[in-house]
Amino acid sequence: MLEHYRLHKDEEIMLDRFNPDDTAGFKRKEDVRDAFEQMERKLRELQSKLFASKTDAVLILFQGMDCSGKDGVIKKVLSNLNPQGFRAESFKKPTVEESAHDFLWRTHKVVPAKGYITAFNRSYYEDVLITRVHKLITDEEAAKRLKHIRHFEELLLDSRVHVIKIFLHISPGFQLEKIRERLEDPEKLWKFDPSDLQERLYWDRYKEAYEDAFKHTSTAQSPWYVVPANERWFRDYLVLRIILSAMEKLDLSYPKVELDEDILLRVKSELQKRS
């Protein structure tokens, strides 16, 4: 199933071939509820092994158009993880300090340490997306940055930081409906940003920028996944399945602890006396 949503190295990427309304044949949320809950339990078990072993780290990148649900999917899919070993990072317009460094600096410093899982709400890919759409960098500079990103992700993988890259795919009509909901719902109005309407004018440019980024950075080791996100319940199901599949491949296990036999016998004896 996941293979259908996975992008392959050097293939010509066309987002139009992915249907944002796709639900893989499932009709409603109830169809995946039991499977979703089972995957949640498995993910918590794997997180526990990851945290205990301290051999690997997991970085999950979420990209998507405005209103694609990056905040929502992190909350829904990852909120059941142990917060001791998980955090989420969000990236907005670079600060003065961040702008004074290379474009990877602000994200590199919050990459998870071994034993931890981190979710990025937007990421270093913004520096080849919004900058390119608004012509803040040239195509030549974008090509250089994409090369740096490939090398950066190779460095992370060599350091046993496993990168899971997810694009939440929505339609323009769905985005407009979400913007309308924000304007009409007092509890969602705080999410509304007038720039969201302005950015809609650049939809086709963003699509082209994403397609080019996917083409140059979707590798066998760190592929991109295009997740249909018009149906939120299917978005959550598929994202959880992608993350779980990636973590199962790490072959995680609890570390073996060898105790001195004499010490172990004394401890057992003491426990028996106190029981």
Distance between the termini: 53 Å
Structure annotation, total helices: 11
The percent range for helix content is 40-55%
Order of helices and strands: HEHEHHEHHEHHHEHH
Structural class determined from secondary elements: alpha/beta
Compute the number of strand runs.
5
What value does the average pLDDT take?
Answer: 94
Rg result: 21 Å
Shape descriptor reads globular
Which strand order spans the largest sheet, edge to edge or round the barrel?
2-3-1-4-5
Spans where pLDDT lies below 50 across 5 or more residues: none
Let me know the largest β-sheet: 5 strands, parallel
Proportion of strand residues: 5-15%
Provide tags for this entry:
11 helices, alpha/beta, 275 residues, five-stranded parallel beta sheet
Descriptive report:
The mean pLDDT is 94. The longest helix is centred in the N-terminal third of the chain and has 21 residues, at 33-53. This protein has eleven helices and five strands. The relative contact order is 0.21. 47% of the residues lie in helices and 12% in strands. A five-stranded parallel β-sheet has the order 2-3-1-4-5, with helices on both faces.
SSE layout and pairings?
Layout: H1 33-53, E1 57-64, H2 70-78, E2 86-90, H3 96-99, H4 105-108, E3 117-121, H5 130-133, H6 139-158, E4 161-169, H7 172-184, H8 194-200, H9 203-217, E5 224-228, H10 232-248, H11 261-274
Helix pairs in contact: 1-10, 2-10
